[in-house]
Design goal:
heterotrimer, A mainly alpha, B alpha/beta, C mainly alpha, A: 2 domains, 13 helices, 0% strand, B: alpha/beta, 6-stranded mixed beta sheet, globular, binds adenosine-5'-triphosphate, binds magnesium ion, MetI-like_sf (chain A), Peptide/nickel transport system permease protein (chain A), protein transport (chain A)
């Protein structure tokens, strides 16, 4: 019992030591300092809380949702206002509980965001580091392609793609992914160019490391922290585009409880039953706000140069 | 002759996360129409002293003085408007690096004219004439051409001359030069210094010359203040420098290389904690 | 609309940025970049229209068309030719402004677009004007009063702008300002009373009505456009104020600001002239990007407000699988993007003497 309060203090001291004994300690110490900086920003913590709730809600949707997300009570519970008994956020025109639909919809949102991130971040990282490290014509060609995609209207291109591929959540993910990778490539290239001529890369090369190894083990890790910040900040945008596609009927198809599509179906009753369209919009706003807050906080804590800007 | 500037027990400190940083800790001196040098190592508070006189102390800093007076005007209690009219009008300051101290998107001529028209009610045409004269006075050969150039189009030495012109065009009585030549090449340094020297002498200005180069200061000024850790540790006539008493001043003098003597090992500046007191 | 997309080209480097080269080479490189980007745009739309669909003919005719019709159409569309020749023909047609015929309206896509595009331009322009005229002062004040309540407020307004779905906010705005308060008109660009009596010249109704001295029409047009324009203006403001703040903080920390103070200039002149004039250089790119994004955002906004512009045209065509119209609209918006980028780059050069040759 007596040494319980002492333990965290010594862990803290170990983490904050300015003479780390091992690489792991140095790395953990750095992460801990970043975390301290992140945690000193209340807005960032609010954002983190939002995302944690989102993940928990998505994971336990089956337990948390009071009603079925797809089957409604057409006879007895059509278009009930919020705070009706048993229906906290009211019901839609099919008598479905809006809260339950939102809870299940969080899974779709999370899936889209994660899939897009998992597809685009590695592609962008690869294209950018290869272009930056190889230089010459490889760089020229890759960056030309990147710039072409960067000069595109993102949403309109995604629309055209989904129109050709056919509506559906998988195609929406593909369309968003195709339009989202170029900024990551640009960024990774800039970072690579910055470290390419540094002495430690030269040292690694002198020791006989192959270009592949240099890029994979030494260049890519340098790009990771800014990439993470960017991806987090972009997730809000991805959510908004996905919702936009859903709103236009090009994303997830009915009766699936996708938030954007829910707004579209509530649009018809907006004058009299405002809650049908309002609730899913609130959900989108809160979740993308969460990603933006966390992204801002991460940027400030990982990159103190930009702090406060 | 009545002194131009009275500084008595000037203190400047910055509240920071790791506590109060005392940049200037009680500096006192008076200045007539003469040339005063301030030397000291980096961080000794030279610039903050100069900026306090100019009224350019950052807003978060705390500033106090028993007396801070320019030509009978109490600077610390002067209204901001009066303070502003003094800046550039009667007290001017030349900054260290012309590359960063000139507005990159304004032509040099416009920047000079701007100072003039801020302090004097003159027509555009007259202002232009005076700016061209001023450029000629800092020995720029083709003033009309340089007038329309942008800062990135001129060399460092030329930029520093333009900056001197910009600061002196309104005819100030006191000039604070904060390491005005340390960003320049040695040969250019001498040129710019001699221009500065002439202007100060011709116009009878008071000069506060900040530098960390003791030799430069002693050849250029009448009197020298030696600062260490925010305090004046010694005040001495430039000609008397050889008889400096304070060990820190002697240390600074010792660090200067002299021809014909072999100096191994190189001397290291000695710093004693008790000098801070 | 995602506002993060707007910032990304700025952060990641401007697409058309070409370093200081001798003028002739600079112009050539510049033209090369623009042309490859345009060809890239066409390649992508070509790919979407001709390669992704299992059979483009069925996409045009529907799957119940007789076999002879299918064969005829296949030849007419040049689908028997090798793919590079098809692309060559496609580029030639696109350059001539021929994007095929819209299945929905039965008009050539190009003439449809020419009819609806001014509505979108008018909306996006007014939105950008609103966003710029509010965003720049707010951003400057937030930077000058850094850390104060005002700064926090600007930050929160910006964050919400980055996070809110535009179509949803549009619906709520309609609910409040049209249905409940009755302050604005809806739907469309102009009331039925004037729809047939008013003959536009430029297609920008607000300007046309004022030009012709039709005050009643102007008021009616204004009541129609103000809500969607204010909405777009909010998004543009969120982005512009945030970037202005960050550029201004950067400028205010520069040494030339100290020099300007040493000259005795007023704080107002230092902030609004010296610092802002320098911040304006990167801001040009930001405003251009924001304009481009509003054009794109029109797809969702116009749907909500029944605004008869290019965005609504594209979504209507989408719903009817009218690929010619969708891709034609995509090319036009993409080309406008390229044009705006080009313009902003030229403007950047005139604003920054350091990039002039
Ligand atoms: N904005 C600030 N916040 C906190 N401390 C500051 C600030 N500006 C200056 N200081 C501190 O004040 C002290 C004196 O700074 P000053 O610029 O006057 O030094 P200096 O003698 O001019 O040195 P140098 O030769 O390097 O120019 C330094 O220790 C510096 O760290
Ligand atoms: Mg200094």
């Amino acid at each position: 019992m007596t040494d319980v309060p002492a333990a965290p203090r010594s862990t803290r001291a170990w983490l904050l030591s300015d003479r780390p004994q091992s690489r792991a300690q140095a790395r953990l110490g750095r992460a801990y300092i970043s975390w301290l900086r992140f945690a000193s920003n209340p807005l960032a913590l609010v954002g983190l809380a939002i995302l944690l709730v989102l993940v928990l809600v998505a994971a336990f949707a089956n337990i948390l949702a009071p009603h079925s997300p797809t089957a409604g009570d057409l006879a007895g519970a059509q278009l009930l206002p919020p705070l009706s008994p048993g229906y906290l956020l009211g019901t839609d025109d099919q008598g479905r509980d809006i809260l339950s639909r939102l809870i299940h919809g969080s899974r779709l949102t999370l899936t889209v965001v994660l899939l897009v991130a998992v597809i685009t971040a590695p592609v962008g990282l690869l294209v950018g580091t290869v272009a930056g490290y190889a230089g010459g014509w490889v760089d020229g060609v890759l960056m030309r392609i990147t710039d072409i995609f960067l000069a595109f209207p993102k949403l309109v291109l995604a629309l055209a793609l989904v129109a050709a591929l056919g509506p559906g959540i998988e195609n929406a993910v593909i369309a968003i992914a195709v339009t989202s990778w170029p900024p990551y490539a640009r960024m990774a290239r800039a970072e690579t160019m910055a470290v390419r001529h540094s002495d430690y890369i030269a040292a690694v090369r002198l020791m006989g490391a192959s270009p592949v190894r240099v890029v994979l083990r030494h260049v890519m890790p340098m790009c990771l922290s800014s990439l993470i910040v960017r991806v987090t900040l972009d997730m809000a945008g991805i959510i908004l585009i996905a919702a936009g596609l859903g709103f236009l009927g090009l994303g997830a198809q009915p009766p699936s409880p996708e938030w954007g599509a829910m707004i579209a179906s509530g649009r018809r009753f907006i004058l009299d039953q405002w809650w049908v369209a309002t609730m899913p919009g609130m959900a989108i706003l809160i979740v993308s706000l969460g990603f933006n807050l966390v992204g801002d906080g991460l940027r400030d804590s990982l990159d103190p140069r930009e702090a406060g800007q | 002759m009545r002194p131009l500037l009275h500084v008595d027990d000037l203190k400047v400190s910055f509240p920071t996360r790791s506590g109060l940083v005392e940049a200037v800790r009680g500096v006192s001196f008076t200045l007539g129409r003469e040339r005063l040098g301030i030397v000291g190592e980096s961080g000794s508070g030279k610039s903050q002293t100069g900026r306090a006189i100019m009224g350019l102390t950052p807003p978060q800093a705390r500033i106090s003085a028993a007396r801070l007076e320019f030509d009978g005007i109490d600077l610390l209690s002067a209204p901001p408007k009066l303070r502003r009219s003094l800046r550039g009008g009667r007290i001017a300051m030349v900054l260290q690096d012309p590359k960063y101290s000139l507005n990159p998107v304004m032509s040099i001529g416009r920047q000079i004219v701007e100072t003039l028209r801020t302090h004097e009610n003159v027509s555009r045409k007259v202002a232009r004439e005076r700016a061209l004269d001023m450029l000629a006075a800092v020995q720029i050969r083709d003033p009309a051409r340089v007038f329309d150039l942008y800062p990135h189009e001129v060399s460092g030495g030329m930029g520093q001359r333009a900056m001197i012109a910009m600061m002196l065009v309104a005819g100030p009585e006191l000039l604070i030069a904060d390491e005005p030549t340390s960003a320049l090449d040695v040969t250019v340094q001498l040129e710019v210094l001699s221009i500065l020297d002439r202007l100060v002498a011709d116009r009878g200005m008071g000069l506060v010359f900040v530098s960390h180069d003791l030799r430069l200061v002693s050849s250029f000024c009448d009197r020298v203040l030696v600062m260490y850790a925010g305090k004046v540790v010694e005040e001495i006539a430039a000609s008397e420098l050889g008889n400096a008493r304070h060990p820190y001043t002697r240390g600074l003098l010792n660090c200067m290389p002299t021809l014909g003597t072999n100096r191994h090992p190189l001397p290291v500046l000695d710093r004693q904690p008790e000098w801070r007191l | 609309m995602s506002s993060t997309t707007m910032s990304e080209s700025v952060r990641a480097g401007r697409p058309f940025h070409v370093r200081a080269w001798p003028v002739a080479i600079g112009v050539l490189r510049f033209a090369g970049v623009v042309i490859t980007t345009f060809l890239g745009l066409l390649a992508v739309t070509f790919f979407i229209g001709r390669v992704i669909p299992v059979d483009p003919v069925l996409a045009v005719l529907g799957d119940r068309a007789p076999a002879s019709a299918i064969e005829r159409t296949r030849e007419a569309m040049g689908l028997n030719l090798p793919i590079y020749q098809q692309f060559f023909i496609y580029v030639r047609q696109a350059l001539a402004g021929d994007f095929g015929t819209s299945v929905l309206t039965t008009h050539p896509v190009m003439s449809d677009i020419a009819r609806v595009f001014p509505a979108t331009i008018e909306l996006a322009t007014l939105g950008t004007l609103i966003g710029t005229s509010l965003g720049i002062p707010l951003g400057v004040l937030a930077a000058v009063k850094r850390g104060t309540l005002l700064d926090q407020l600007v930050r929160i307004i910006g964050l919400i702008g980055y996070s809110v779905p535009i179509f949803w906010l549009g619906l709520l705005a309609l609910l409040v300002f049209y249905a409940k308060l009755g302050w604005v008109a809806y739907p469309g660009r102009i009331g039925i009373a004037f729809e047939y009596s008013f003959t536009p010249i430029t297609g920008l109704y607000l300007i046309d009505a004022l030009w012709q001295g039709e005050w009643e029409v102007a008021v009616d047009v204004f009541r129609h456009i103000i809500l969607p324009a204010a909405l777009l203006g909010y998004f543009s403001m969120a982005y512009i104020s945030r970037m202005t703040r960050s550029f201004m903080l950067n400028e205010l920390g520069q040494e030339y600001i100290v020099a300007a103070r040493a000259k005795g200039l007023s704080e107002a002149r230092i902030i609004w002239f010296h610092a802002l004039r320098n911040a304006a250089v990167p801001l040009v790119t930001v405003i251009a990007l924001s304009y481009a994004t509003l054009l794109e955002g029109s797809v969702l906004t116009e749907t909500v407000f029944s605004w008869p512009g290019l965005g609504l045209y594209i979504t209507n065509s989408l719903q009817n699988a009218d690929m010619n119209a969708v891709l034609g609209g995509t090319i036009i918006i993409g080309s406008t993007f390229i044009g705006i980028n080009l313009l902003s780059d030229l403007l950047y050069r005139t604003l920054d003497p350091r990039t002039r040759a």
